[in-house]
Amino acid sequence: MTSMNQLWRFLGGIAGEQIEARPGPVNAGGPLRHRKFASHSNDCHGARALGRVGFNSTADGRSSFSEKDLFMTFQNALRAGGVAVLMGMAPLSLSAAPVLAADDPVVATVDGTKIMRSEVTEAYSRLPAEYQQVPLEQIYPALLNSLIDTKLAAIRARKEKVHESPEFKEELAAFTERLLGSTLIQRAVDAKVTDDAIAARYAEVVKDMGGQVEVHARHILLKTEDEAKAVIKDLAGGADFADTAKKKSTGPSGPNGGDLGYFGKGQMVPEFEQAAFALDKGAMTQAPVKTQFGWHVIKVEDKRSQPAPSLEEMEPQIRQSLTREIGAEVTKELRKTAKIERFNLDGTPAK
């Protein structure tokens, strides 16, 4: 679910306003998990690479914000240029079907100038995807008010011949350059990021993902080998693993009974991973395991086979990845045939 904090940060950031960030839960990472994996809690229970994606949603799958909140955020953004700033940099839609007059009623007039429903829906479509989680019907009043204010400002600007000023022409030329470039890339993306291309990339990514084994383990981290051996002896004599971890483990997971949750291969340091995956369910290491963090006693609580995520779950990530690749390909091809000369900041030839 798209949070109001996210919407505020997006709109407020465009407006150049300082929006107070509301505190959220702090993720506590542990020493065993590699840095490339984001941690959640319990030492090492982290997000998987190419794991399930998407927003958490309400019962109907949509976000819910009050009209007042939305109106105020758009008004804040408007101070820095309104919807022209919010949406004007998005590439033009190249594949949109023509809008029939009967399907495009007038939704407002400003000094006789009409604002059509298609302008509202176009403005909505130019918002980042996560903010389109808010239903159009709910965001409509804020969008329409912003369009009205932008139209008023544009009418006054034309009367004052702002569009004839050198500053405006310079800014318009720079904007045109950026829009031309983004539209060129968008054309390539629209042509190549097809359903077939997404399905092919999905098959490539998940061919080795299905049936991957995950381990649910606990561990007790100790400073010396002798301490670890003494703990193993206590456990063999009937001591409870979780209670012992709470009393003796020096790791962040100690207060939780040494619980590391489920993890897959590549998420722990190699020595720990090798020992954990070699154990059967319910088994414990009979000798201390040495890593860069100290000496470990490991117990495997469970093992499971993790199914690969579905195409639907991975589509947003795949689409984003393909888009980046195609954008890079376009610019690479353009550079091949261009004569490019570089200079230093002071204008002298670069060496």
Give a nutshell description of this structure.
The chain has eleven helices and eight strands. It is of the alpha+beta class and 351 residues long.
Explain what you see.
The protein is 45% helix and 13% strand. It is of the alpha+beta class and 351 residues long. The chain has three domains: 1-21 and 52-160, no CATH class; 163-210 and 315-351, no CATH class; 212-306, Chitinase A, domain 3 (Roll). The strands form three sheets. It has a four-stranded antiparallel β-sheet. Strands 1-2 form a two-stranded antiparallel sheet. Strands 3-4 form a two-stranded antiparallel sheet. Helix 1 packs parallel to helix 2, helix 2 runs parallel beside helix 5 (136-159) and helix 7 packs across helix 11 (311-336). The longest helix has 27 residues, at 166-192. The two termini are 51 Å apart.
Which structural class matches the secondary elements?
alpha+beta
Tell me the strand percentage band: 5-15%
Mean pLDDT: 78
Indicate the multimeric state: single chain
Envelope shape: elongated
The arrangement of helices and strands along the chain is: HEEHHEEHHHHEHHEHEEH
Radius of gyration: 28 Å
Main beta-sheet annotation: 4 strands, antiparallel
What are the SSEs and their pairings?
Layout: H1 4-15, E1 39-41, E2 45-46, H2 67-78, H3 82-87, E3 106-110, E4 113-116, H4 117-125, H5 136-159, H6 166-192, H7 195-206, E5 212-222, H8 225-236, H9 241-248, E6 259-263, H10 270-278, E7 289-291, E8 294-306, H11 311-336
Antiparallel strand pairs: 1-2, 3-4, 5-6, 5-8, 7-8
